[in-house]
Structure formats: C-alpha cells, structure tokens
Design brief:
12 helices; alpha/beta; five-stranded mixed beta sheet
Length: about 350
C-alpha cells in the first residue's frame, strides 16, 4: 500500500522568516540505527506528523535497513522528542549525538525521505554481514590507540570533510563519496592486515558499514570511534582529555562545520591563504561547495569563479533562462579532490 508523503508547503523565504522570529533556542542533534523497518513509507509519515507537531526541523533518511537523522529540536520540546523516539521499539534508547556548536539555523524545514539505504555505499549488503562491525572505542580508548605504533587510523569521510580537520597522523583517502572510499580503503590497507585499523567518521554511521566491509575482506583487528567526531568532541570536553583532533569538523547542515580544534589546516581554493570557510557558490546553477576566504568572497561575490560571478550578477529571470534545459551543476571542476588544481585555471580571471 502506498502512502502519500506529507511535506513542507512553505517557500524558503517564509521558512527563513519563521525561523528568525522564533524566541526560543534549538538543540542540534544526530542519531542513527541499523534496524529492519517493515514499512518505511508508513513510518515516514507517522514520524513527520509527530515531529512536525514538536517543531522539529532537519534532514532524515529512512530505509528498510534503518534510520539516519540530523535535526534540530526546540529546547522546550526536547524531552517530548526523546519520549517519542523511545516509544518506538525500533529506536528505543538510540544514542543522541549533541552538536558541539549550537546554531538555530541548522535546518529550515523538516525533510524526511525514504531511500534504498541510509548511507549510499554502492554495496550489495547480502555479500557480507553488516552486523559484524569493529570494536567500539570511547574517546579515551581512541586516544590510547592513536599513541601505538601498531595502529593505523583511517578517516572514513570524504576529501572535502577531512580537508578542514582530521585526527593527527590519520590516513586521508582522497575520495569524493563514501561509495568510492570503501574499495579505496581496502586497497590502501591491503598489506596492513596485521595492523590495528582504527576508523572514524562524523557521527559513527559510516564506520559501522566500513568496519564490517574491512572485516569481510580479512581484516581482523578493526576498531571504530563510537559516536564519531561529534561524540569525541563532547567527551574530551566533559572528561578534560587532550584532543587529538585538529581543525574543524564538517557537518551536513547549514552550519557546514563545528570548531573542535583552533587550527586552520586548509587553504582558500582561490588564493591559497589559510582558510576553513566552506561556502556554496552563489550561482544557483553551480552551487558547488568549496573553501573561500573572506577576501575572495568579497572579490568574487561568494562565487567560485569569474564565470559564475557574471552569471550570478544577472537578473534572476535571465539566470533562469540560461539554466533552462541544463543540468544544475558546475561542469568546470569536480566536487573536491581535483578542484584546487582546476581553480588555477579560473582564479583572477
């Protein structure tokens, strides 16, 4: 039986005004759980009704294999939201990862989508046991592992995430997507199966699948940072531990990043000055994510190139005419890994 999905009916401008008019604080959280869901479409609508009534905003993916959620909850309804989660046996006591930096503008609307998978990995799950995951480590245990010469620490995130922040000495695979990264990690570690492999990601969900994938390929000593960087940052602060993470933690909401370490590891893609300021190109037909310092933002009007700057300066109706019938994506450089090289062709023109 098909269920017509409930959805937001307001424009982006109206949503922004509603958010700006709020006189209360929000708490930004994330959580996930691998669990078999019998009817994701029905559940999707039930959750939409419950969470909309509580003022929840966010981006949530539901699949037969489970749930992956990033959202913000009004503080005065936080306990009610926790109760609504625990009332469902599939999600009862699921750990919440509380954002390091709380910003009310994390999300504009409630967006719950049914997908084939909660994280796109390109894998046929019946080829290996996705529940045979690595050993979970808390922040203190993780730090100790990093001090061992027998440990190889692997960043299971995309290139544009690790570019602005990562753990000391981590292997940083140059991949644009998680789908690309899994086989790349196995290839990079092929002669390291006798080592302890310690993995980390933003909130832990990608490590669940990646650690099972490595064990399927013969790696025995596989560990993962429980709750990812988000939980690590909270735990080191709570327990007064030394942080081994340097720079910013990339997050998938309007904030784009959280400050974990004060270091600036990355460079502006247009002038090579130190910067960790992620931005989407102001040309709607491009919208590419890249790193741009404040100076270049002013020079290029928040655009990735002079080409996009010229288009963004045109009247909106003329921009729409140019976009008509064309794919809404930038064709002159890729999402991340080759981007700095190609920027050489465009900056200053």
């Amino acid at each position: 039986m098909k269920h017509k999905p409930l959805h937001n009916i307001y424009s982006k401008d109206i949503l922004k005004k509603k958010l700006e008019a709020e006189d209360f604080q929000r708490t930004t959280i994330s959580f996930y759980r691998y669990v078999i869901l019998e009817d994701p479409n029905l559940l999707r609508n039930e959750l939409y009704r419950e969470w909309e009534s509580l003022g929840v905003l966010g981006r949530i993916y539901i699949a037969r294999e489970g749930i992956n959620a990033q959202l913000s909850v009004p503080e005065f309804n936080f306990q009610k939201f926790r109760d609504s989660i625990d009332a469902r046996k599939e999600f009862k006591n699921v750990p919440f990862k509380i954002a390091v930096e709380q910003k009310s503008y994390s999300f504009l609307k409630l967006d719950i989508r049914v997908r084939n998978k909660i994280v796109a990995d390109g894998l046929a799950d019946d080829t290996f046991d996705v529940t045979n995951v690595g050993t979970h480590l808390n922040a203190e245990e993780f730090n100790k592992k990093l001090e061992s010469s027998e440990t190889i620490v692997v960043d299971v995130r995309n290139h544009y995430e690790s570019e602005i922040g990562h753990f000391e000495g981590a292997l940083l695979p140059q991949a644009d997507t998680f789908r690309e990264e899994l086989p790349l990690i196995v290839d990079l570690l092929q002669d390291k199966k006798d080592k302890e492999i310690v993995m980390y990601c933003t909130g832990g969900i990608r490590c669940e699948k990646a650690s099972a994938y490595l064990k399927h390929h013969g790696f025995q000593n596989v560990y993962q940072l429980h709750g990812g960087i988000i939980s690590y940052a909270s735990e080191i602060k709570e327990k007064g531990l030394d942080s081994k993470f340097k720079g910013k933690n990339f997050v998938f909401d309007a904030r784009l990043q959280e400050t974990v370490g004060e270091e600036i590891l990355s460079e502006c893609h247009q002038c090579d000055q130190k910067s960790a300021r992620h931005i989407n190109c102001a040309n709607p037909a491009c919208h590419i994510l890249f790193i741009q310092c404040e100076s270049c933002a002013e020079k290029f009007d928040n655009c990735c190139s002079v080409e996009c700057q010229k288009i963004a300066a045109l009247p909106v109706e003329e921009q729409k005419k140019l976009r008509k019938g064309k794919a809404a994506s930038n064709q002159h450089f890729s999402k991340s890994k080759i981007r700095p090289k190609v920027f050489e062709l465009y900056k200053g023109k």
